[in-house]
Each structure stands twice: as structure tokens, then as C-alpha cells.
Amino acid sequence: MSDDEHDNGEEGDFADWNEEEDEGQRRARCLFSSRTHPSPTAALAHAADAFGFDLRELTARYGLDFYGTIMALNYARTVAKDRGASAGTDDAESKVAAERAIEGIAAGEHRDERFLVPALEDDGVLFEWEDFVGTDAAGQDDDDEEEEEGVEPNHDEDDEDDPVVNAEMAASSTDPRVTAELARQLSAAIEENDALRLKMLELTGEPEDDAPTNVGAALLPAGVVTSKRSTAKPVPVAPSPRRSDPRPDRRSALPTVDEDYFGGYGFFDIHRTMLDDVPRTAAYRDALERNPSLIKGAKVLDVGCGTGILSMFAARGGASAVVGVDGAAPMAACARANVAHNGVEDVVSIVQGKVEELLKKGDIPGSANSYDVLVSEWMGYGLLFESMLDTVIAARDAMLKPGGAVLPDVATIHVAGFTRNATSQPFWDDVYGFEMPAVQADLAEEAAKLAVVHGIKSAHVCTTDGVVKSLDLATVTVLDTEFSSEEVTITARTDGVRGDENDDSVKAGGGRGATGLTQRPADPAPDHDAEPIMCHGIVVWFDTAFSERFCKEAPAVLTTSPHAERTHWAQTLLHFPEPVALVPHGSFWWGKDQPKMGLIGTRTNPARGIKVRIGMAKCKEEERARGLDISLEYEPVLEDGTPGTRKARMYQM
Questions:
Q1: For a tag on the chain, would you pick the N or C end, based on fewer CB atoms within 10 A?
Q2: Known catalytic residue: 377?
Q3: Catalytic residue among 386, 446, 578, 635
Q4: Exposed (0-12), middle (13-18) or buried (19+): which is 420, by Cβ within 10 Å?
Q5: Is the pLDDT of residue 468 over 90?
């Protein structure tokens, strides 16, 4: 999870983010040999020139759409590997493999879902093939389409709140990369502080004091947490080890990612943020304390127990025994202290370790399939970021009784459209009398590649919403967590809200820094009937339900919707490269007699709706082993169902 939402745009947003390589400089491996090239575009150009595998020609000849192109590329790499060409530099072998791949694509052999899985880890070609093809695999290049209609391409209307790694901004950021950097800096600062403190004690000869007696005192990692009750034993909380290089070796990247993941949750600011999230915490409290038919006398397993709050809720709700498991050693120690301090140690026990390893060793108390209830707050950004659901599924299958309860038991993913007001672009329009289009361009470019975690207002949502995925957490499998959703159609809101109304809060200084002295004309008040609504992308959120299936007395829904109270998950934004124009609800201006010009979804020919489909898959790169890759397909449609250009994008989270 993350700290609080970060601001809509800051001057230092991208100044300190130097860990990520420039996408244009990413090296790429040849499709048909072991050679490497300076960029994915160079690799594809070499495949065309040297081996006759011209992706531009193939997409045009066989009508390959976005997913078809992805499958074709993975199919080509698989053919090269099967024929041994990918391991060497023999051009003759490579050419034979390329010819076989072309024949297979012509025969449709690539159209198999297994070729949606990358054949090569960290394959930049899969993310940048569109740069080589020069289209979005569905037709013309976006810019070319606009130029043909006499509309000047606009690249400055999208947004991303780039991460920033300075103390003030990082403290309020929701971006997971910023959280990781903040954790690293905090770990180093804590260790340095502890070393100085111990050195001072050595110089003065004074004994080391115990930490304060309240449970939050474990914020001093080298100290101890002592219960106010005289019978409680001090619990040591060790500082996180300091590493000179967070990724010392690709072969050990996955263990390092897990260490960073569990270590990140060992910092109390993160847990305070989650506990301070009332919709989240109250939903779990009510499920565990207001459903006696489920909890009273039950044996409960809490996966990822953190501070132990859910375990203590279960104890207070009448559970006969509760076992909390956490992968972070400092947090497990703190949870034990909290349990002892609050007098529920006779009911609650805490186990430290990764669930999968504990299950292999049989180190979770109780026999297999002996628990009545499994509770876990496993959800990440966009629901599935961090991949913790796999761990919950493993614990459920191994430890829960047949027919046992999973809390929450249903999860749904929703989508809707958002306007420019939901982005940080308006902030940079007028910064105390100065325009900053270079910042806007950089933010827009990054937002076209990355899923942006940011909380938006209900007033900035411009369409109806649709459910693209529903998961029954009592039966879901690991395979179900990677999917391509059903298609839904979203249309302009029906409640009189356009989403693009004037809003000073999105401008510099909350409007006070927007002077009106720039050359950019002031935004006119939108005409609710005649002016199209410009949809700038898709906002994704999730709900989790504690349904009547298990919570008979007090069912509840925890929602992260932009229309509800803000949670620490915020929402996930997927930006369009160019906005889609929509007809406002109830508008008569765009009736059948109104002349229309240009492509469907443009200002002169606005769409009645947008068909949307998303996909989610775990990242195959070791360094992003807990990351998420999100695909988005969208297509504007007229009232009679006539479709516009279908487009597809890939976003990293």
C-alpha cells in the first residue's frame, strides 16, 4: 500500500526520478539471434532488413490488432528458440527461423493465448513495437488521422503525477515507486540515527532507555517495545539491514524484491496511513465484530497481519483462536507487543514469515484445513498490484475448512472516463502568469506509458461506470488473477455533471496562482448541450464486499470509488494519448440532422459512448516481480453502433 495521495503536480515531479532508464535507450535482443541492439526499434529494423521479418508489412498484410501483434512477436521468439537460432549469431539459421515464423503467422499459428505471455523477460520490443510500425495496429497513426482531418496534433493534454523523492512530496505520495524510495531513505536515516544514539550512550556511559510504553514506541527500530502491564516481556525490534545496492544481481532480484516489499511494510508511517483510512479499517472492524454467527467461537487466520489490528478485531468479536502471520520481522514483533498490551494474547498468536514458506514447513499453528475464517487486507492499487492475492489463495487452500469464510469474499473492478480536470495539466497552464508546456509534455509522455495512482474527484469523472471484472474470493484461482476482461460501454453522465466544469482547485495555488496573464485564453464555461465532453482516459477502481454469504448480520462493501469517501488506494488512471469527444447526455445539438465531420470521437464528430476492455497480468521482469502490466482497449461508437478507430495501449504499474 502507499502513503497518502500526492498532489496533482509539483515542480520537482520528475527531477529526482533517475532510476528509470530513458525508454528510448532501452537495449533489445534480436528476434532471431543472440545479438543485442541499442533499442527495440533497431531490433525490429534489423529483423526486417536482415531476415525479411518486417513487422510493418505483417501487421498490414494479416490485419494484426494489438493483441495479435503481441502474440506474433512472442510466437516469433518461440520459433527462434525452438530452432536454436536465438542462442547464436548464425545469420543463415536466423533467416530460416524468420521464414518459419512468417509462415506460421500466415497460417494463424500465433493466435494462441499462450503467446500473450512474454517469451523473453523484460522484452522492450513488446512495449515499443508501435514506434517501429508507426501505427496503433488498428489503422493510421493518431497524429496522421488528425492531420488528415485538418486538426493539429496535440500532445500536451494528458497527465501523470510523476514520483518525487524529496521529503515533503514523498510523505504524501501514493506512487508505489516513491513509497519504495521513501522506505529506503527512511531505513538509512533510522540506522544512522541509531548509530549516533548508541555512540552517544557509549561516550556518556549512560544506560540505554527503554522505548516509551505505548505500542507506537517501536518506531525506534533498535529499541524495545514494552507493555504497560508488568507481566509483558520487552520485544526487540531490529532495524532493517542496509544495502548498498537494492538490486545487486539480477539472479537474486526476486528475493530482494520480497525483502523490499516486506521491509517497506515494516515502517509505521505506512501502517498509520492504512489505519487512518476509516472506510478500510471500519469495514474490516464491522465484519469481524458485528457478525457473531460467523466469528463467535471461530478459529481465524489473519494473512498479512501488520500491526495486528484485524487479529484484535477478531478477538474482540468473540473468536476462540486467532493466528496472525506477517512477513516483516519488525512488524510481527510489534504485533505481538500490541496483542500483549491489549490483553488478547491468550486468543491471538503471531507468526513471522512468508506464508508460502511457512506452509511448506508446517509452521502455521493448527492442522491443514482447520480454520473457520480467513481474513486479509491484501488489495493493492488497481486491486491486483503487489500480487498478494496469490498468497491469500495459497493460505485459503491449505488452511481453510471446506466452506469456510473468506473476508472479504467478492472483489469487483470498475472503469469510467475522466476529464482534463483529473490530470495535473491545468496546474501548468498558468503558474503565476507563466505557461509551462514543457512540463506538460513530459508529464503527458510518461502518463502514456505508466498507470498513474492518484485520487480524483467525483466532479472530474465524465461518464457512467462499468464492471469489467468480478472475482469470487472463496473460489478464485491464481490463474484467474491474470485476465482480459469483458467489454463494457460507458457514456456521458446522466446526472447533469460533465466533469469539465471550471474548478479552481486544479489550478496553481488552488486558483490563486492562476493570474490570467498568460497568452493562453481563459477556459470558457462549457456549453452543456453544444460542447462535446473531452474524455482524457479511463479511471480504474475496485470494491470488495463482505457479503451476506458469510456476514449475515452486517454485510458491507468497501469501495475505492471516486464517488465515495477517499481511501489510501486512491484510483488508477490510464491516460489516452489523445482525448475522445463524447456527446453530453440529453444533448439535442448532436442529433441526426447535425452535420458531422472527421473521425468518430473527435470534436466535430463526438461519440455517444466508448467501448472499454482492460487486461491485467503480473509483470515478468524480476525487478518488477510484484508489479502489474495493464492493457487497455477502447473504441468510440456512435448512437447507431458505428465504431470508430479501435486503439490499444499497455501501461506499467
A1: N
A2: yes
A3: 386
A4: buried
A5: yes
